[in-house]
Design a protein that fits this description.
The chain is α/β, with parallel strands linked by helices. It has 13 helices and seven strands. Helix 3 crosses helix 4 and helix 10 runs parallel beside helix 12.
Length: 287
Amino acid sequence: MVKKANENEKEALEKYLLQFLNLEKQFPLLPGIGNSESIAGLIGLDVSELLSLRENFRENAKKAALELLKDDDVIDWLDQLPLEANSTIVALGDSSTDDLQGWFEIFKFILDITVPEADFNFINSGISNNTTTDALRRLNRDVLSHEPDWVIVSLGTFDAQRLKYTPNRTLIPLSESWENLTIIEDAIGTVTENPPIWLTPNPVIPELLDKMDLFEFSIQNRDLANIREIITGKKGYIVDPVGRRMGNPPEAWYYLSDGLNPSLSGHVNTVKELLRSLATAKIQDPD
């Protein structure tokens, strides 16, 4: 007999967990993983509840896109984007990319609404909690195999984890993060002549993160700053190189209760910065 989520668990799913529980992407080879009934059973929901909640997140992203399109700057930037019609655009990332109402979903709606004739192919290859090592392991399957024209990379936050029993080091050493990102950069260059688009990790609010019982780690902003420094040395478009899109200092309004994952408002800030960078920033070429 399948155990159903109780009311408290359903509330947690709706307000925090479900938008990141995209099990189809985490376990693509499991038999039946494409079956909504199977997914709903694993999470403890009825199929109708699962589909309804996922649709709510989708609608949130669409409404956010429509609000952004009321901004004159956004309209100007859209006219200057370097994206060619019929392009395949892949986002390789972690939780903020995987989020059903995240920045990539909002970005997708904006382009679909404003230039439907461009017929972009959007592929969300974000998986929650991924480090650069995790992303590198699945790079061929989830990015290169699609032969993308453009790749947006949003990684590094979870490299900076400091586990509670080993607080004196990050989960992924900085030298390994550098090497992983360099390999990802080189691999993207084998499938497209367009430069990578690098979305830097946003800062966190440590005092909120420390209150989350779900997490066995902490993240320090100085470690994220080191990741951003690596990314700013890469070839391509660098989005938010100093990490100020959530305010300076970062404001709690732009985050979920964990102080780590962006709220809908935080994702809107990210999309604005992404559009601005693509429209106005020069392509960086360290060579």
